[in-house]
Amino acid sequence: MKFCASQNTRLGVCFVSGNLSVPLASKHPRGVRWPGDGAKLISSNDIQGYTFRGRFKSAEEVCGVGLEVTQKAHNALRWLITRQGDVGKTAERVFVSWSTAGQSIPDPLKNTAQLFIETPQEDAVEPRYQGDAGQIFALRLNK
Q1: Residue 55: is its pLDDT beyond 60?
Q2: 96 pLDDT above the threshold of 80
Q3: Is residue 92 domain-resident?
C-alpha cells in the first residue's frame, strides 16, 4: 500500500469514504474471482475505449476512489469469495453471500413488505458479532 501510495501523486476526493485529500487509485485490482481473472469491480484506466467517452473529457473528471478504499474493497470481496463463494456451472459467475453484525437471514421467498412488518426494530439492542461473516449460511447455500 505504501509503495502504491508513493507512486501515486494524484490527490483528490474519494467519493466512497468522503475524504477530501487522499491518493486516488488510477488502476484498480483485477483477479477478484480467481488468479488470472480479468474481472474488476471498477474499471477506470481505459482511456481509448468506451469507459467515459462522450460523458467526460478525461478520466480525471470521473468520480475518484481512494487507493486504500479500492484495495480494501477488492481484498474483502476476494476473501469472501475464497472463503464462502460458489462458482457457477459455467465458471463465469461466482455467488457469494454474507451477513453483517450477526443478523438473522431473511426468507428470500417472502414479500419485502412482510419482512419489514415482522421484524421489529430495536435501537437499544447491541449488535451481536458472531465472527463468521455468514459462512454457515453461505456453505448451506452452496450445496
Answers
A1: yes
A2: yes
A3: no
Q: Which of 35, 56, 83 is the last residue of a domain?
A: 83
Number of domains, the chain: 2
Q: Which residue has the higher pLDDT, 125 or 37?
A: 37
Cα–Cα distance, 60 to 44 (Å, whole number): 9
Range of weakest confidence among 52-56, 64-68, 127-131: 127-131
DSSP string, 15-37: TTT--SSEEBPSS----SSSTT-
Terminal-to-terminal C-alpha distance of the chain:
37
**Rounded distance between C-alpha atoms, residue 90 and residue 34, angstroms:** 14
What is the Cα–Cα distance from 119 to 93, expressed in whole angstroms?
A: 32
Task: Please identify which residue in the block is written with the cell numbers 468506451.
Answer: 50
